[in-house]
C-alpha cells in the first residue's frame, strides 16, 4: 500500500526524522491558509499523487500552467494561484503513463535553502531477507538512471536483524555521502530513526529523494515516499486509515474485497490463474505468442465459488480485455470449483469475448464436464501452450 508524501512525512516526524513544516490542502483557500501558518517567505506547493517525477511532470490542461507538479511560491497569493491551477488537473509523469493522475490534494510546505542533495532509501533485500540501505550522492534525480549510467555512485549495505541498526551504519551513510563534522552525527541519528520507522511500520520501501543539507548545515528529508507490506496491514489500522482509494484502480479495490491478488496491466488478454508462479508463466507465454496480458490475477489455492465468480467479473469489467484465459492447476484448488465459478459469472454478466479454459489436477474431469455441459461457448485447452495459442488466435481473429 502506498501513501502520499504529506502522510509519509507525518510518520517520519513521529519518529523524530527532520522534515519541514507543512500541511495538506484540498482546496485553494485551504492552501493559502496552510501557507499562512508557515515561516516563509518561500513556500512549496506540491501535487499529491501516488507517482514519482512530479517536479518534471506536465499537466494535460493548459490552464494548469507549465511549471509541473512541484512549484515555488513567494507569496500567499501565488500559493493560492498555483493551487487553483493544479487542483482537478491531470498530471503526467514518467511513472503515471500517458493517462496521468488527477491532482485532488496538495501539500504546502515551508521552503528550504538547499546546499546539497543526496539519495537515501531503505528496502527489503529479498536475496538476503534483510533491510538494506541504498545511498547515493546523486540526489534529486532518477536513481534508476544513476544505477544504469554510474553504478559506482550508489552504495548499498544490509542490516543484520540480530543486531539491528548500529552507529557504524550511520557512519557508513555519512561516509558514502561525504559528510563531515556535525553532519556525521546527524547522519547516525537519521539512520537510526529511519530504520526504526521502517521496522515498526512494516514498510517495504522508504525513499528520501532528495535528502538535503541546508545552507545552515542541517540534514532534512525534502521528499518522502513510503510503501507498506499489504500482508502486515492488519497490525497497523492507523496506516490503513491513510489509504487513498482515488489513487487506486477500481478493479484492484474490488479485488481486495475478496482477497484476490490482482494487478491491472495494459494488455488485451485477461488472465485468471491459481498460484503466483503459474500466473507469471501464463503472462510470459501470452507475451511469447505476440499479445499482452491485461492483468495479473491469482485466485489462490483455496478459492471459493464466490471468489472465482468475483474474479471473473473483475476481468470482464476491464474494457481493454478482448479475450480471457483461465489457467488452473488444481492441487488444493479443485477444478470443479473453478468451473462452477466461471459458469456462474458468465451467466450473470454474459460473455462478449473469447474464453479459453485449461484445467488440470484435482477433479479435472468433473470440472471439464461442468463446462462442456453448460452450453456456453468456451474453448477447451489441453495444456498451457495450447491455451495460450488458442486465446491469442481468438483475439486476433476478432480484431
From TrEMBL:
GO CC field? cytosol; succinate-CoA ligase complex
Matching entries from Pfam families are given as: ATP-grasp_2, Ligase_CoA
Essential cofactor(s): Mg(2+)
Q: Which enzyme class, named as a word?
A: ligase
- Indicate which residues the UniProt annotation says bind ATP: 46, 53-55, 109, 112, 117
Q: Which SUPFAM superfamilies match?
A: Glutathione synthetase ATP-binding domain-like (SSF56059), Succinyl-CoA synthetase domains (SSF52210)
Cofactor, free-text remark: Binds 1 Mg(2+) ion per subunit.
* Catalyses which reaction(s): (S)-malate + ATP + CoA = (S)-malyl-CoA + ADP + phosphate; GTP + succinate + CoA = succinyl-CoA + GDP + phosphate; succinate + ATP + CoA = succinyl-CoA + ADP + phosphate
Q: List keywords of the entry alphabetically.
A: ATP-binding, Ligase, Magnesium, Metal-binding, Nucleotide-binding, Tricarboxylic acid cycle
| Binding annotation for substrate | 274, 331-333
Documented EC number(s):
6.2.1.5
What pathway is this protein a component of?
Answer: Carbohydrate metabolism; tricarboxylic acid cycle; succinate from succinyl-CoA (ligase route): step 1/1; One-carbon metabolism; formaldehyde assimilation via serine pathway
The UniProt record lists the ATP-grasp domain at 9-241
Task: Decide whether keyword Nucleotide-binding is in the record.
Answer: yes
Listed GO MF terms: ATP binding; magnesium ion binding; malate-CoA ligase activity; succinate-CoA ligase (ADP-forming) activity; succinate-CoA ligase (GDP-forming) activity
One of its GO biological process terms is: succinyl-CoA metabolic process
Binding-site positions, Mg(2+) = 209, 223
Q: Which NCBIfam families match?
A: PRK00696.1, sucCoAbeta
Quaternary structure annotation from Swiss-Prot or TrEMBL:
Heterotetramer of two alpha and two beta subunits.
> What's the family?
Belongs to the succinate/malate CoA ligase beta subunit family.
Would you tell me the protein name for this molecule?
Succinate--CoA ligase [ADP-forming] subunit beta
Instruction: Write the lineage as a comma-separated list.
Output: Bacteria, Pseudomonadati, Pseudomonadota, Alphaproteobacteria, Hyphomicrobiales
